[in-house]
Design goal:
There is one protein chain. The protein is α+β, with helices and mostly antiparallel strands and 200 residues long. It folds into 2 domains: 62 residues, no CATH class; 88 residues. It is built from 4 helices and 13 strands. It is globular, with a radius of gyration of 24 Å. The termini are far apart.
């Protein structure tokens, strides 16, 4: 057997075949090293304060703006009780917590008779309000509104897909105990009216 054929057979034996994939052992080792380097990367990165809140720190792995790539990957350190002012991004964010805990709140956003509110806000005494609506060039719908209850205010900004099947956005509460900022995304869409929402 010549050396070229023996080398070819050795490479075939060294590879693991998966439907649609063929992973060479040498490549697999390289992939594991890359994975480990990414996992350990935060301690090697340069941390900088967020321009909107210096107590929030950012460390960029790769930046769409600076590295001429299609996306941005970064780590963020957000101390307990801290957050960022209401803002939006032109792309979807994928957020993966490495440590700590966040707060998740479920609510129902209702559009009815040209007004919008949520079940949670109605239960707190907020009254449904009119909202502005704009259509972007790509067909997405952008809506905004503000509601007040006594000395407290809440600001909404939402984005609806052209197919009208998904919605996401940000909501900012200006409460007496301090501001609270959340991002939201829809889990389902169904027909409902304000009369169907029971206030407990």
């Amino acid at each position: 057997m010549d050396s070229a054929k023996a080398l070819e057979e050795e490479e075939q034996m060294a590879s693991e075949k998966i439907p649609g994939w063929e992973i060479n052992k040498h490549k697999n080792i390289a992939a594991e090293e890359l994975r480990d380097s990414i996992v350990n990367m935060p301690k090697d990165l340069e941390w900088k304060p967020h321009p909107a809140n210096e107590r929030v720190s950012l460390a960029f792995v790769v930046s769409k703006k600076d590295d001429n790539v299609d996306g941005t990957c970064l780590f963020a350190k957000v101390p307990k009780g801290e957050g960022l002012p209401e803002h939006t991004h032109d792309v979807n964010d994928i957020i993966v917590p490495l440590s700590g805990k966040g707060k998740s709140v479920e609510d129902v956003v209702v559009f009815s008779e040209g007004k919008v509110s949520t079940k949670g806000l109605i239960s707190e005494g907020f009254v449904p309000t009119n909202y502005s609506l704009n259509i972007k060039d790509d067909g997405k719908l952008i809506w905004e509104t503000m509601q007040t209850q006594g000395e407290e205010m809440v600001f909404f900004k939402g984005e609806v897909t052209p197919e009208l099947d998904k919605m996401s956005g940000v909501v900012s509460f200006q409460k007496l105990e301090g501001p609270q900022n959340y991002s939201f995304s829809s889990s389902e869409k169904r027909e409902i009216s304000l009369d169907e929402i029971s206030v407990e």
